[in-house]
Amino acid sequence: MVSVLNNHNSQEAHHPNEAYRTALDQFRRAAAYVRLPEDVKEYLRYPRREFTVNFPIRRDTGEIEVFTGYRVHHNTALGPTKGGIRYASNVTLDEVRALAMWMTWKCALVNIPYGGAKGAVVVDPRQLSLSELERITRRFASELIPIISPHSDIPAPDMGTNSQVMAWFMDTYSMTLGYSVPGIVTGKPILLGGSEGRTEATGRGVIISMIEAMKYLGWDNRHDAKIVIQGFGNVGSHAAQYAHELGFRVVGVSDVSGGIYKENGLNIPAIIKHVQKNGSLARYTDGQNLSNEELLVLPCDVLIPAALEGQITEHNAEQIKAELVVEGANGPTTPEGDAILRERGITLIPDILANAGGVIVSYFEWVQDLQAFSWDKEEVFRQLQRMMVKAFDYTTTISEKHQVDMRTGAQIAAITRVGDAIVQRGFFP
Length: 429
What we know:
The chain is an alpha/beta fold. The protein is built from 14 helices and 13 strands. The radius of gyration is 21 Å and the shape is globular.
């Protein structure tokens, strides 16, 4: 018996989904300020290549089921493509296109020699046994072998995947080539060539961006700031943990099960232990329970949306009470939500800057793998801090020069770097 999952390709080219519409709208807004030939700007709107595969997997029941996977390379002007692989039941090709485009701008903004890529398999990993998860990963990895290598495209973990998935991915690639290739993926276990600090990197980078924004805005008593974090996965939990370690008050957190609020500050270490033991925030009792929607509009100084795309929209942006929004997730704010926040004078640190810590430390991991030489955590965090601060300062410089908001400034900077590289390289043939 063969079961085929729904294919998402049919209508997307004509009706982009929310994430891709947001990515294209952001590009259009920023590109108007960039001095590049119009044909180069047009070229940058499109992915360089898109790879769709449909592959069979034997379930534990013995039945064969066909799964769909995607890998999109947006641009390669600055170097090999880089980007995560997510496992999600509702992921679409358009969503992967958007994420690949954002990765291009993110890598360019923080000045690392990568273009953007993203991949996905249409599956809910929570509905898989461990052996089924391994079989899907190994088969998908084998399907991608024609378009990946340590010098052309380097995958990484994303939503629904982790270091174990990357270990299987690396082993499949290595067994196919006949020798170990740790540089084929990042986000691996440290024993297999992973980097110290990679797990914490994205969340830590979000808080670094938050602190730099507070300094830029002239917040004198910034440690009195109240922080709300939507999403308690890898990004949100490590952002909360690092903020707590630095003495900030995290007053609200949430995950798929709902949120928790405590005005005088949550016990983040206790919440992390609860989630590790129970799998979610559900049944945590030391705080007021509320929904994710209610969490976004809580009274706070800093709001960190670190869950999914499209969370701040025209429907709730008027109710946001934070003075500073720091995007831990990719694309959490729609163009309409963006416009409302701008009109209200709320400062927003965009995703391609705020959550760049993950790809920065992925770059460190890749460099260490190529050199067969590892760095300690202190060195990783020192270099992460340096690169995040440098990117923040560059973004504010460009924003002030063009008198635009931080998102537009960040995209102007990134698009200019990529576009200049294309112009200097020229078009083949």
